[in-house]
Amino acid sequence: MIFNNYRAMEHLRALKKEPLTPDRILELHRILTEDTLENSSDAGRLRTDNDVRVIDSRDNTELHAPPTYAELPERLERLCRFANADETSLPFVHPVLRATLLHFMIGYDHPFMDGNGRTARALFYWSMARSGYWLTEYTSISHILRRAPARYMRSYLYAETDSNDTTYFLLHQLTTIRRAIAALHEYLDRKGREQRETERLLAASPKLRTRFNHRQVALLTHALRNTGEGYRVDAHQRSHNVVYQTARNDLIDLSQCGLLEKAKQGNAYVFFAPPDLRERLAELAK
């Protein structure tokens, strides 16, 4: 699922300037759910029955019955028209609210047998990116939602039991977005401090001060706090958006310095952070 989410975000980056269509939603669902569903044929297709129900696991009470499957193609078409409207369309809908309502409608319609939540969140990110809110791509609303799933569910229930007033859901999601942004800033602050600590360690040695590039410093920073962590060339390449050969040279260089240990896994090499990495850095600095 993690790999599928990564692939889906790559796919959405390429589509952020393109109009949303039902076929593109189906393709997104296929990418997100590939090899994760009980019935693999359900990936990338609308549900074909009305057996989907949202049930309270505590007492099996039915909380929501989504629209019949026969309505789904037309509802998806209407959803795409709503998604593709811009800020000049009337009535005006703020881009953040539009993205949040896309999320709401996928959850409400439950167009797929499984993977509705993943698809709803992915469409939210697509809509935000399309409107220029690029920072949202680096936030994790799902991480916040998992902490309090009951609140998320209640925001749907309150909307449905109050004449489909989505204000409840919108307020819940806006709070979630703010918390996700705050969490991102906390993460960046922490990583910045960690990187500066590593840079100070390297700067203390004239031999190491200019020995490593910023990608290698970032990797060493992570490795100092994650003993035994394995690093692959393709993952390092994606993390820093460089060509494969550049990423390979970074890791080979650190291995030749004795700061990473190279081992073969299948057909690929993996570079591991040794438990005495800090001591090796200190020795190299002499």
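Above is the first protein from milestone M3; the second protein from the same milestone is given next.
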Amino acid sequence: MASTSLVDFCRAEIAGLKESRTYKTERVLEGPTGARVRVDGRDVLMLTSNNYLGFANHPRIVDAARGALGRWGNGLGSVRFICGTQQLHKDLEAAISRFFGAEDTILYMSCWNANEGLFQPLLAEEDALLTDGLNHASIIDGVRLCKAKRFITPHGDLAGVEKALQEAQACRRRLMITDGIFSMEGELGPLRELADLAEKYDTTLVVDDSHATGVLGRTGRGSAEELGVMDRIPVFTSTLGKAMGSAAGGFTTGPAPLVDLLRQRSRTSLFTNSLPPAVAAASLEAFRMLMEDPSPALKVQSNALYFRRRMKEAGFTIPAGIHPIVPVIVGDTAKALAMSAALFEKGVYVSGFGFPVVPQGHARLRCQISAVHTEADLEEAVSAFVAVGKKFGVV
């Protein structure tokens, strides 16, 4: 086989992506994000952000970050266990623990880091790790780093989960992880049924609730609250970079001994700088705001149901659900990306996704609704979708 330089390989791969019209480009935002955002010199309706509660540019969040920058500085130049812990970090961990009704919490720079750093400290070759086949890429990478026996179950296959749990009974310990919300589908995981199986087979259930924290449930406590199983999920991982401030950061929350062991052995905490003070303060303020008043969570839920109904009435294929992630299925990847560009020209910023992010034939535009969208905003988006959908033969 003839040798090829790494740079030549990259050049050829990029050419292939461009030829297949799956090459991803970045748009540059010219200001803060909200219901609308300025991009390429024009104001467009934002329909592709994880800013579910509209907290990213909320005055209280910005003031908290600004105040922390003045009092605590820009950063600590250290990991937590050396000299990287401030009272802000402890206060945020305590607030997250109260929010979830957990004993303790450990912060990370992202939920990706939380998931990567979760399994290896807790499980060894004698143990079992069960994961849904559609779980987030961060969970997949965390699973790869762990030496436990792996059981990758088909998405949503509860019979397959029970069979795997039966096979894993010979293992010393068992841990099962699922997304609370599957991010490309906007689909709730079957947490009640998984909790039943976890209890039946003496297995620890972990839920990554990144797309549900602050979003679902009567008080915004996520997928488990939405499904009435908050007290049956012992461990959660989640993010601060979506609803709860929309900047950065993640965490694992659960039993104190588990969190304490992660502090001692989780490599993505031990060898990564602590969360910047401004980010920690902003996220702490986000939790305070939501615990004071859960109405932003109720508003985004209401907006999501309204938009889903109007898009279905317009003739689009929308999977059943309640989440503000609203996938508009179009089938072909090139069509999804072309429709995204056409919608942008009509003033609606929404992203197209195709293979390998989603299975072949299931390409979609992933709309993401926020609490700061008005009914007029959502109607504007539906009108733009109808015009573009007709042009591309989707409706």
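Note on the second protein: The mean pLDDT is 95.
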